Amino acid sequence: MINYKNILLLILLFIFFDGSAQKSKYGNWLQYYGTGYINNKWSVWIEAQVRNYDFNALEQTFVRSAIQYHFNKDISVSLGYTILLSESYANYVSGLSRYFYENRIYQQFYSKHHWGRFYLWTRYRFEERFFDIVPFFELRGRLLTQIYVPLNRTRMTKGAFYLAMSNELFVKGLVSPNKIVPSFDRDRVYGGIGYVFLPNLSMEVGNLTQLLSTYNRSQVVVMLNHTFSFNRKREKTTRSLFGKD
Question: Fewer C-beta within 10 Å: the chain N or C terminus?
Fold first, then answer.
């Protein structure tokens, strides 16, 4: 019988050792996504990411958090804040080490749908971005569509391997004295394989390609998804990652 957990571990080891041993056109993104439930209606979003160029040069690191209100198990709204430290790809290629800070406030609407084996999630996010370099301030809208399909189960239950696909479109708005000028920022295309360890814990490994106006770049993504309850006496408050399944 195939041990899928060992296969997933070997993939992770290959990514880290191969990436650290040589220069690569790829980068890597290490991601943690957590939802801590206060009760059935309110939760706190906790996210942390480290992103690297060529696996060994820091591209960006940030922490994102939000307070979330759940109308039901499938629809939620959020108000959040992100603090980031970043270096542009142009500076990295030229050898200039110039990191900058960014602060974001964002508003979000999330909806989840489930038809048979298919799970469709849609997220709308609006960001107000504050930089310590020019242009200092920017507005940005983001539309994310995610699809999950279990491979060895009919539902996303414990022990399920699944296919994960997503596309996220970014449109930025440069603010001038009299108007906001919208323009294409980037598009992110992602595909990966995930494993459900527990109803509230899964892991994914995949490839994400960023399509920008001047260049494209890909990175290996390692992602941990987690839900939990802040109230130990009310663990049933914790919801599974994929609904009641």
Answer: N
